């Protein structure tokens, strides 16, 4: 394992510098220089919470997760408190008239008096062990949101310390005690799995927590020795995180989690670089870091849509200031343009996404880089080039009207779905063949029963069901014999999928899949060849399919709505079994299979509804021979 971060931290012998990422509230010139429309926005958001009654959180609310599996009820109360405090703090910084201070103090003490800062699903001391029913207040757990809370109140103290001290020095004294007890002492004295050890696999937790511990240390009031020990441990954790990343920089958790993986790594790097007087600057030129930064632009389709897999949503959130700054630090103007233009297109979303609503540090970064980013916007970034990410097996290709992704890795990604060999396809920036995403998290989501959830199963991806069997989860269940090519006229990928299915059933079977994007014709072709005697092909569409009958072809399966007209002759030559019209967007022609069923997939879950504003559809086709061919145009 490379130890570039830890080595850099150990080699720095100078004093640690102050970390002042943006002006504190007494710097009136900086706040008064903000654009008037932005100041108005900040104040209006803060005023929404004047006189705010922070919601009560009872012991039974915490216990509900273990009793029922529901985690969203507790989280809605928990996050509401933190969102309010951030809005109030930004409002007070903007005008510094004391209008918001009482509500801010109420918020500080509300958080300080919580028995625990961790969420109930994370209330355990060992990785992947059962959660305790209630928290042990004498033994804090450092999870994602405990670390977020520490960073939040450290940032409030940094921004408004003078104003709080004028009311009572006991406010910041309480903040310091809680930060030491819940964050800094456990961080330096204990080992939580996300800190990294040996070859244990890491995920976004590592840098997400590390970033926030660093914010706590360097925005809070801690001595040089404590900060230096924290810096060394944080640097080592970054190395542990990076050991599980390929040199290609692909985030195996998807675009949505990039914002807590790649961007959290960037923020940790910025803090460490600042306090060591630029000692980490050279790491921004490392190709691996550059690739991690640019990943988010490469998986962007158009508008709000991203290529998604695993638990990632196709609507992964707006890019903005952090992507712009990551591009700036790694010398990538295209990424800067991407972040700036998406920020501008979204109206400068200071608060709309969860990252900036929950993390006060990110919110203030947005505020003080707002003008810079908005001035840089206006020039649309170029279309990303075709790309294959070998570390995850992710294939991306584009034509003037189509954007195609194929997943050819294994079923052991972080936040894994059994989706090896699945494809997603967009036409004119709109979803055609889709990856559904994931429903609201519950106790089952991260348990041994995870793959009972329908959205995790390969049968609800664009994949075959073989002899009634779907894919299995784990690193051994993977695509093999993967080959890809990118040419001026076409881009293609092929793979063997039999190994992704139960070995006791398929040891002698083969299932080869090939997918090609034809650029000039704006067409995708898929060919599956197998010796499996029983194959049901599944395709998930955003728009409702309509079966167009060809002369002499019977509509055997009446579950398909049928339109009595001949399919037009503009498609490629050959006798197609049938043609499906997918909404008004595209036509899917196929041979070697017969329509089996059309199912409506109700989208009723709140998390799925953030991506899909109507039901989705599953097309099911039964293969009639050893070869299936399909084209979409």
Structural Rg: 26 Å
Strand order in the largest sheet: 11-12-13-14-22-19-18-16-17
Query: Which bin fits the share of residues in helices?
Result: 25-40%
Gross morphology is globular
What is the CATH C-level name of the largest domain? Mainly Alpha
Mean pLDDT: 93
Number of strands: 22
CATH homologous superfamily caption of the largest domain: Chondroitin AC/alginate lyase
CATH architecture of the largest domain: Alpha/alpha barrel
- In whole angstroms, the N-to-C terminal distance is 46 Å
Query: Which parts are unreliable, with pLDDT below 50 for 5 consecutive residues or more?
Result: 551-558, 564-573
Can you describe what's shown?
The protein is an alpha+beta fold and 633 residues long. The protein folds into two domains: 4-376, Chondroitin AC/alginate lyase (Glycosyltransferase), CATH 1.50.10; 387-632, Beta-galactosidase, Chain A, domain 5 (Distorted Sandwich), CATH 2.70.98. The protein has a nine-stranded mixed β-sheet, with no helix packed on it. The chain is globular. The two termini are 46 Å apart.
Features:
633 residues, alpha+beta, Glycosyltransferase, Beta-galactosidase, Chain A, domain 5, 2 domains, 19 helices, 22 strands, 37% helix, globular
Question: In a few lines, what is going on in this structure?
Answer:
The protein has 633 residues and is of the alpha+beta class.
Secondary structure topology:
Elements: H1 4-11, H2 28-32, H3 36-47, H4 59-68, H5 72-95, H6 101-112, H7 144-167, H8 169-189, H9 204-219, H10 224-243, H11 255-258, H12 262-275, H13 287-298, E1 300-302, E2 305-306, H14 321-329, H15 333-345, H16 354-358, H17 360-376, E3 387-389, E4 394-398, E5 402-407, E6 410-411, E7 423-427, E8 430-433, E9 464-466, E10 474-478, E11 480-486, E12 490-496, H18 503-506, E13 511-518, E14 523-530, E15 535-541, E16 545-548, E17 562-563, E18 578-582, E19 586-591, E20 593-601, H19 606-609, E21 616-623, E22 627-632
Parallel strand pairs: 16-17
Antiparallel strand pairs: 1-2, 3-4, 4-5, 5-7, 6-10, 7-8, 9-15, 11-12, 12-13, 13-14, 14-22, 15-21, 16-18, 18-19, 19-22, 20-21
Helix pairs in contact: 1-10, 3-5, 5-6, 5-7, 6-7, 6-8, 7-8, 7-9, 9-10, 9-12, 14-15, 15-17
């Amino acid at each position: 394992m490379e130890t570039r971060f830890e080595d850099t931290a150990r080699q720095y012998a100078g004093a640690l510098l102050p970390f002042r990422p943006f002006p504190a509230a007494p710097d009136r010139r900086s706040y008064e220089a903000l654009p008037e429309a932005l100041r108005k926005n900040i104040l209006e958001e803060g005023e929404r919470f004047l006189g705010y009654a922070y919601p009560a959180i009872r012991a039974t609310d915490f216990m509900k997760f273990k009793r029922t599996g529901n985690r969203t009820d507790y989280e809605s109360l928990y996050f509401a408190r933190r969102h309010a405090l951030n809005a109030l703090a930004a409002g007070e910084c903007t005008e510094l008239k004391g209008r918001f201070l009482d509500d801010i103090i109420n918020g500080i003490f509300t958080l300080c008096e919580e028995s625990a800062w961790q969420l109930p699903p994370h209330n355990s001391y060992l990785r992947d062990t059962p959660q305790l029913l209630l928290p042990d207040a004498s033994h804090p757990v450092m999870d994602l949101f405990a670390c977020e809370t520490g960073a939040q109140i450290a940032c409030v103290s940094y921004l408004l310390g003078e104003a709080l001290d004028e009311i009572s020095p006991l406010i910041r004294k309480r903040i310091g005690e809680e930060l030491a007890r819940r964050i800094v002492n456990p961080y330096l004295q204990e080992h939580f799995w996300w800190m990294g050890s040996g070859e244990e696999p890491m995920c976004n937790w590592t840098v997400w927590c590390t970033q926030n511990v660093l914010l706590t240390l360097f925005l809070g009031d801690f001595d040089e020795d404590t900060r230096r020990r924290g810096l060394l441990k944080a640097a080592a954790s970054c190395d542990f995180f990076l050991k599980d990343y390929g040199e290609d920089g692909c985030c195996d958790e998807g675009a949505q989690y990039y914002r807590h993986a790649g961007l959290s790594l960037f923020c940790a790097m910025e803090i460490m670089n600042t306090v060591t007087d630029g000692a980490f600057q050279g790491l921004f030129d490392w190709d691996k870091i550059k690739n991690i930064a640019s990943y988010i632009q490469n998986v962007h389709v158009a508008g709000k849509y991203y290529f998604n897999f695993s638990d990632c949503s196709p609507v992964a959130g707006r890019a903005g200031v952090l992507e712009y700054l990551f591009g700036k630090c790694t010398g990538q103007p295209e990424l800067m343009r991407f972040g700036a233009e998406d920020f501008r297109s979204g109206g400068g979303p200071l608060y709309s996404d969860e990252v900036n609503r929950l993390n006060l540090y990110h919110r203030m970064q947005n505020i003080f880089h707002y003008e810079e980013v908005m001035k840089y916007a206006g020039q649309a970034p170029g279309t990303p080039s075709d790309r294959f990410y070998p570390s995850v097996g992710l294939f991306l290709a584009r034509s003037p009207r189509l954007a195609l992704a194929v997943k050819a890795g294994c079923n052991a990604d972080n936040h894994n779905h059994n989706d090896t060999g699945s494809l997603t396809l967009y036409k004119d920036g709109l979803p055609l063949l889709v990856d559904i995403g994931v429903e609201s998290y519950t106790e089952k989501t991260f348990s041994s029963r995870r793959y009972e959830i329908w959205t995790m199963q390969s049968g609800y991806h664009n994949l075959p069901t073989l002899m009634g069997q779907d894919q299995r989860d784990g690193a051994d269940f993977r695509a093999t014999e993967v080959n890809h090519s990118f040419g001026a006229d076409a881009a293609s990928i092929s793979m063997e999928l039999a190994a992704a299915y139960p070995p006791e059933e398929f040891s002698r079977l083969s299932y080869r899949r090939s997918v090609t994007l034809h650029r000039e014709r704006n067409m995708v072709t898929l060919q599956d060849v197998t010796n499996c005697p029983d194959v049901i092909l599944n395709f998930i569409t955003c728009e409702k399919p309509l079966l167009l009958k060809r002369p002499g072809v019977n509509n055997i399966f009446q579950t398909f709505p049928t339109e009595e007209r001949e399919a037009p002759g503009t498609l490629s030559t050959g006798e197609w079994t049938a043609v499906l019209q997918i909404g008004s967007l595209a036509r899917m022609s196929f041979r070697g299979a017969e329509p089996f069923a059309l199912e409506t997939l109700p989208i009723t879950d709140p998390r799925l509804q953030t991506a899909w504003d109507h039901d989705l559809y599953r097309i099911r086709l039964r293969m009639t021979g050893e070869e299936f061919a399909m084209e979409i145009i």
